[in-house]
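pinning this so it doesn't scroll away 📌
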Amino acid sequence: MFRRMLLILLLVLALPASAEEAAAPATLRECTTLEAAEAFMIYPPEDGLADVQAGYIRFIAQHRAGDDAFRSEYWLGGEPGSVLDLTLQENRYGHVYTFHAGNMCTRAAYSMALSYLGVDVTPGAMSAMTDRRDMDPPYTAVSEMMGVELVQPRAYVFDTMVENYLSDPSYSPVYVYIRKPDGQDHALLIIGKLPETSRYIVLDPSGMWLRGEQHRIYMMAFNKTRVEVVNSTFRDEYAGSKVLALYQWRLVEEE
């Protein structure tokens, strides 16, 4: 009797702690919950920087104030204080820079999309490579240097890009550039999709705050033609936003 009870106990201990743990997604592409997607984010250690790992996303924070994931090193394309220091909002003569880390969401989203492919290029490195402080997406020159190419579907662009990402690890998450109802533009990454719905998991380089907690990953839903945001975890912020551009990159096949 004792041996039988011991065998049952060992079998119970060998089982997963929960059904959710047993069904934990093997890849980011399979994630259908915010919690599952969070496990595939790489945040910098408390006193250092993070490396990239294919299949995971190295998070690049935009805002120095209020975000403990912000690392100025990710935004340095030259010496601190130089014109290629993207953390600066103005130079030593008081000239105001149009773009800086706090509003370079496009640069952060691109860096994170490529990190998923295992490509290590920070926003600052992009400036170092091109010797330019400002540049526009889709960053073709940088992509060519890093061995990735822009994906340009001819039809059903949104759905095709999402399917590319969900079905093939050589494709990056989908970069979505939107204009919010207040007129501000912002770049996000689609990193997951809920089955049989128009709801997607998005990653935000600036994050949103709710009850004192920062949310870098949240839900977003688009209309049938995928040109407008109809709902979001942060509905007041995003409902009615227009989709301005979609980008995706893939690893170039070696000959």
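📌 and the second one:
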Amino acid sequence: MRRILLFLVISTFACEVFSHESYKTASTLIENFRDEMYLQRIDDATLSQMYQDMLVILEELDLDEQELLFRKSQAAYYMARGYLAFDKTEEVLESDREFRNSKFRAVQKRYKNLEEIIQLLEESMSLSEQYLTMGRDARGIRQYAESLSQIATLKTMSYLISNGPKVQTLAREAIELDPDEIKAHMLIASRYIYSPLIFGGNPAKGIGIIETTVQKGSPDREDMHSINVALGVANLKLERWLEAAYYFGKAQEIYPGNVYSAAMLSFCESELE
């Protein structure tokens, strides 16, 4: 009997160790994929293959159903973000001008695979919804909100008006559950920084939120990049070219070669000449 009990204890411990390693592997896979998306060292086709390979590995890991749903939701979200990233400076600057002038339809037309991008974001949201039925927590709510924030301007204007405000509501719910959920804080700040004036844009207010946010939690590589890019955009909108150039430069240090931050840095430097 004692041998049986000892075997059960050892078996349980071994499973926990194996499970822990699987969770760690899943996290590393997602982080590596995320970083490749931001670094833009590979083309969309290669990134897509990396995405497909990662899904296969995630399915083979010893993850419980809820964890698998969360990781697959993240994967779909980052794949969509990869497709949304422009590869040329001119495209970045032109689309940025169009977005700031609320010409969302013009930006949409720049994406030849818009339907695929929307499908990926819808899949990410669906996976997050399934995840949340098993337990509502900050990271699940935030992940859903991040995908919703990306898809909001890719559909119709009525969709944006109906669903755009939900991002803020969800972000606040995530923060209530976990005050250190930095990405949720950034969703709130982004609304004021990236939104055109007609949709409530207020760069100065966004800067204030970020200044408070950086004191919370432990920002990861993506968080630091997002913070610097957002501060760059906010200062750009306020025509503080030197400050904007500084933050875009910091973003380039985090993800060297990222086309968006490089393009915006170049634009700010041209304004300083």
